[in-house]
């Protein structure tokens, strides 16, 4: 079973910086690092032929958006970023784009995961689909490591708020790849080499 210990050396994240990310976010003072008018990279569907368990068409299709660092800064590390939102919405600006920008500035490739959530056309229960989406995202990054210029042995996952739960669940529910699958992406490991969860600070919220 993978360890919960964060390999800070992998991402060069000092403890106080990581703590700062958490507390600034909780105080709703996180100034956007990315111009909201700037064009986002094109999201990539996690399953080209449609995700298993889809019930609401396009609105329920999980995808991954790659934010890559400048080539001169890139260090080969990658992080799948899971924005919070209580499985009812996705805070994908301050807990997605801003985090990706912060990682990019440190040479890390970031991949924002839009996993399945409860919606009007997609009532609960959700399980196991958000977990499947997180596992698939890790596999997808590994399968496309050369395309994105990352090291397949250095793929982590970060989660915020409720999706610290999703990130930690993905870490403890992983496999080394499904060798008998007809889907080549499923043959890659879903095991994150590092993880970090940023839960709400209940003492100050």
Detailed description of the structure:
This protein is 28% helix and 14% strand. Helix 3 (93-104) links the parallel strand 3 (78-82) and strand 4 (109-114). It has six helices and six strands, in the order H-H-E-E-E-H-E-H-H-E-H-E. The chain is an alpha/beta fold. It has helices at 8-11, 15-26, 93-104, 129-143, 145-148, 162-172, and strands spanning 44-45, 63-67, 78-82, 109-114, 155-160, 194-198. The protein has a six-stranded mixed β-sheet, sandwiched between helices. Helix 4 crosses helix 6 (162-172). The longest helix is centred in the middle third of the chain and has 15 residues, at 129-143. It has a single domain (10-198), classed as 3-Layer(aba) Sandwich (Rossmann fold), CATH 3.40.50.1820.
Quick summary of this structure?
The protein contains 6 helices and 6 strands. It is α/β, with parallel strands linked by helices. Helix 4 (129-143) crosses helix 6.
Q: Main traits of this protein?
A:
Rossmann fold; globular; 205 residues; single chain; alpha/beta; disordered N terminus; six-stranded mixed β-sheet
> Biggest sheet: strands, sense, closure?
6 strands, mixed
CATH fourth-tier homologous superfamily: Alpha/Beta hydrolase fold, catalytic domain
Q: What is the fold-level CATH name, i.e. the topology? A: Rossmann fold
Shape: globular
Provide the structure class.
alpha/beta
DSSP helical segment count: 6
User: Could you say how many structural domains there are in total?
Assistant: 1
Number of strands: 6
The CATH architecture can be named as 3-Layer(aba) Sandwich
Write down the secondary-structure element order: HHEEEHEHHEHE
Mean pLDDT: 81
Fraction of helical residues: 25-40%
